[in-house]
User: Fold serine-type D-Ala-D-Ala carboxypeptidase from Mesorhizobium marinum.
Amino acid sequence: MVLAPAGVVPARAQQQSQLFETRAKQVMMIDAETGTILYSKDADKLIPPASLAKLMTMEVVFHALKVGRLKMDDKFAVSKNAWTKGGAKAGGSTMFAKVKSEIPVEDLIKGVIVQSANDGCIVLAEGLAGTEENFAKMMTERARQIGMPKSVFKNSNGLPAEGQVVTMNELVHLARHIWQEYPEYYRFYGIREFTWNKITQPNRNPLLEMEIGADGMKTGYTEASGYAIVGSVQRGGNRVFAAMSGMSSEMERAEESRKLLEWGLRAFEKTKLFDTGDIIGDAQVFGGAKSSVALKAGGPISIFIPLTNTDRLVARIVYKGPLTAPVKEGTPVGVLKVWIGDNMSQETPLYAAETVELGTLQQRALDAVGELMVGWLR
Assistant:
């Protein structure tokens, strides 16, 4: 492993080709435990989300449940708007909710997750935010809060809307976030079928029927970007998440997602880079009693690396420096970035491992002279 200076991308990392090929046009796959990027292909391209937007709808609902603004046995009324836009007459996915009826939140969640119910999405949106437009704003705001800077939502169900876009990168991290933050609700994604209004519908996720350890999460389709899926598989103590789009048919979506997820479980092994408390490197300090400060992570750092090409691992510490004294122990300083081949696979926050107090007047003067000379050289 090489600790390279900030701003330098190692040449051998630039030359590494992908280890797997897929017909999907946009892909992102990560290891659930460490967040290691196992595979990436045009993953930051903005595309219409279709029903994958319902993952964000559920995040907003799950967050409201977690903070106590909502309870599972709360009931929301089915408005004429929800029945008209999302019911059977609309021609899309529906839970066949009866207009003017009231449905408990838990059943609405099952309808949205298992049956991909557009009417269920609208009922939840109106119940939580008054209007679907207000709810869509909540979705986008919440996306920003959990680290999704690009995705924009215009409605709760992903039906075509101008300006509504997501990336596979952000969707796969949303999926992992839901799994990490809401384990008591993530289980809904593995339900095989759900009955509402005396109509039983199977889960639309084809991975659940393959007996490969899949337990989530969502499928989607638009004419503009083709067939898409966000899936997760757990097996042998490992879990991977993948988001894929741009496939040509339901059959291709099922086959390509199965192959990618199974490869993700087979082709990598967990490697520990640093133990808890290990000094990973240091950062330059200006005006301090010491000229540098040691850096460490918040815990152990592990990464999943391919069983082949294990020598393609390259790491570097990135921070804005020099830091200005005093620097207190525990202060966030930068990140450790790790590449596997040409893919930037993992980022881990780094913190000051010690306190560096303000230096003496002489030390600060020498640092100032040194910085001035560097400035002239620049």
Summary: The CA atoms of residues 8 and 316 lie 8 Å apart. The radius of gyration is 24 Å.
